[in-house]
Structures are given as C-alpha cells and as structure tokens.
Specification:
single chain, 529 residues, alpha+beta, 6-stranded antiparallel sheet, 4-stranded mixed sheet, 23 helices, 12 strands
Amino acid sequence: MTPDDRAWGAFSDNPPWILDRDTVIWRGLVEGLRAEARSQLPALLTAPRIPPVRRLVVVVFTVGKALAPWWWKRRRNKYASPEASRADLSLRMRQAIERLGSTYIKLAQIISSGEGLFPAELVEEFKRCRDQVPAETFDDVRLVVEGDLGARIEDVFTSFSTTPIAAASIAQVHAAVLRTGESVVVKVQRPQVGVLVRKDLKVMAWMAPFLVGRIKIAALANPPALVELFAETIVEELDFRLEASNMLDIAGILADLKQDGYVIPRPHAELVTRRVIVMERLEGFKFDDVAGMKDAGIDTEAVIRTGMVAFMEGALLYGVFHGDLHGGNLFVMRDGRTALLDFGIVGRLTGIRRMAFLRLMLSATTNDVKGQITALRDLGALPMDTDIDAVIKDLRLDQVAIDPTTLSGEQLVQEVQRIVKALLAYGARMPKELMLYVKNMVFLDGAIARLAPDLDLLGEIANISMLFAQRHGEQLGRELGIDPTQVEINLDSVKAGLGVGSDVNTMTYRDLQKRREIIQKRMRDHVAR
C-alpha cells in the first residue's frame, strides 16, 4: 500500500515512519525561527570600523603560510607545467580553507560546482570539501547529540556509528539505528560553528566594500551581496529545524507537481532540534558513479532530464528551489529516482522577483532580447532606471551572434573585456536569488558532462519548453497576462548564448565542450604570452 504521506510528499515507498505535517511539533516554530534569524542580519552585515583583528590575522596568516611555498616554487620555475602549478596551488588552497573552517569551506563548495568557470584543478580539489572535510571527534558529537536530544545516545539509539558517513562545512552525518528499530542517519552540527561563522561574516563584511571597483569581475559578482547571501543562508543553516521544514516544503512541491523522479528523506517528527536532525536513511549511487548506474540499468539521461524539469518547475511555479546542488547533496537510487539531500540553503523567489524570473525564462525561449534584459533589471541585476535599449545596443545583442570559435585568443580576451566594461558602466550586479540559480545551473552543466554527454541540448530545451506549455501554460499565461496559445518557441537567443548561429538545430554537450575547450585554450595561450 502507498504510505499516507506519499499523497502530499515526495518520499520513499518504504517508510520508517509516516509523517503528518500538521502535527510535527518543530514545524510550528519555523516562522518565528526564520524571523529571529533575519533579525540578526543587520548586525552581521554592518561593516565594523575596525575589523575583527584576531580573526583577520588568522585568515591572512593561514592563507599566506599555505601559499608561500607555491609562490616561491613558481618564481623559480620549479613546476614541470602550468597544470602542475595550478594543482599544487589548489591543494594548498583547499588545505588552508579546511583549517579556516565552515564559512570558507562553504565558499569552496560553491567553487566546486563551477566546472567550466574555474580551473579544473581547483574544482577537483575543492570537491573534497563537499563531504570529506576533517571530522569532529566522537566525544564532541556525543556532547551535541545528547545536549540537544536531552538523553544519552544509548537511550535513543541501539547503535550509532562513531565514524561519520560524510563530513562537510556545517555538520557531519552518522549512521544509526533507533531503539524502535529504524535505520536512520543523524546530521550533527559542528560544536563551535555558530561562533566561528559570525566572526567570519564580520571579516567579510569589512572586506567586501574594498573589493568593489578594485577587481572588475568582483564588481559584477557584487561582494557585499555575496556576503549578504552568505549571512542569510548560513544563519538559517545553523538551525536544523529550518532545514527540516525546508525538506517538507520541497517534498510537498514535488508531490504537487507529480514529480516522481525525486525522493526526499523523511525527517523524524520528534528528533529534530537546532543542532541535530534524525532522518530516514536512503541509499544509492553517488552522482558521479556513471558506470555503476549504467550497470544497474539506470537511464542516466532520464536522471538529468528529470533534474532539469523539476528544478525549473519548482523555481518558476512556486518560487522555491534547492539552493545548493552539488555531488555531495544527491545520489541516484537503484530504481532510477534521485534522492535530494541537505536543505540548509533553499532559494525563495517571491512576488515581483518570481514574476521577473518567469518573464526571463519565457523571453529566453521566444527570442525576446528586450524582455530578457527587462526581466534581469526587475530581478535586481540592473538599476531600475537603466536604459534597456542602450544596454542591448552596447552589448550588441541586436546584432548577429559571433561564433567565438572563429576568434583569436586576443579577440576573445578583448570581447570579454568589452562586455565586462559595458556591464560595469550600467552598474550590473548579480542578485542573490540569481546567484543560487546560476550556481545550480553550473552544477547541472557538469552533471550533463558526466551522465549525458550525448544529450541534444537544443532538443531538450525545446522539449522542456513544450512540456511547460502543456502542463502549466494556463497558469503561466494567467500570471503573466498573456495568451499561451500565441507563444511561439524560438531558441535563437539560447543558440546565441551558446555561441552558435540560428541555423544550428542540434548540439550535444560533447559538441559544446569541444567548443569551450577551443575557446579556453586560445584565451590561456594569449594570456600566457
């Protein structure tokens, strides 16, 4: 029989317990806890006149000590190749970040999702920060668990593994079995993480304004907004009752969408506290274990397709989406469904911004360039008084797209510099919600490379657009004030974004990656001259 809670939540078919979301005690506290977390933000985001000197010294010393040997070897040409230099630098950066703790590990996790944006050596090294961070001692874990649950571990669990399954920035996860017999995992917050994160945010709030205008690409990333994003997400991550509530929210949305390709682990109705979550244990293949999935008969292209649709549906229709996708936060079960984990960061688009996001997606699939720029302005990427027509002209969006593979390294660099300069002139910034969404899209980009390199990207985008029109056209048309039957899909702007002409009708990820490698090599060769 189908479990009762499967009617409203995207849960497993073999439950360790049945959830009634209306009677979960900690769920009723969520609004107050969120308000309390938000109330801390002004103090955390106010840059002090004098920085937290002790922590700043620790950060500078730790990074400097780690990088000094690399700098010395590089100056003396001790590396056999540029790749060897980058690999050593990446290793030293990762070791320094692990010593600095949770906030910097979270930064490394974001970079680890940036395949194609950051050097491959750095991405690979920082992937270890997802779930292979040095763990806390079991004595410290015991203190947190027993302090929050108000009972000895032996009184709640018949077994509790002393070695964690995974250890990441904020917490680590242990396998356990409840006294009532259910196999569970227990997520336990690191003991001093709350104090350390707040100190680091003070350091970042002090440093961020100094980066604006000094590092061009940092101006586009909007360092103060990045710090604000860290503050908002990490402060909420520090209360696991909020995370457990996020799990129920996402499970409910996926069920409403009849999206059966995802499974959310059930949190325990009683054993959730500020620093501890007891949840259902699910098992499956790591997201990069392509060989294991294929040997088990799993259609890896279907896994990717489901992920793309579900991710977009949640954001477009509900304004809610998992905000921290990476390989350590999901795995594929033997039945082909994807288990989604770690809900500390959830993106929430509300009101005007959700409508702007809807218009952005619609404009992208109908080749409405002006609509896209207007939507980006309404999302906060451009000032509200921006001259949209001038932006289109200055960025040459009204001209036929240039195939970047036809340009020399010098021309590519010049084109990037031209675009960055134009965007800065208009005060372009990356709004917080868009940061999370783009970060997730970068992860999906890398996932396609591993799981579905021969997937026709243009064909999939067209199919997803048609699927949305069929499933949700009436609702989207009503919200946007348009007649959905009059909307015509035109992927020319998508093709332009990929750097190909309007006459190209198919492009696999493998084709796209070859083009990227050509572009990256030409730019590297030019810079190295």
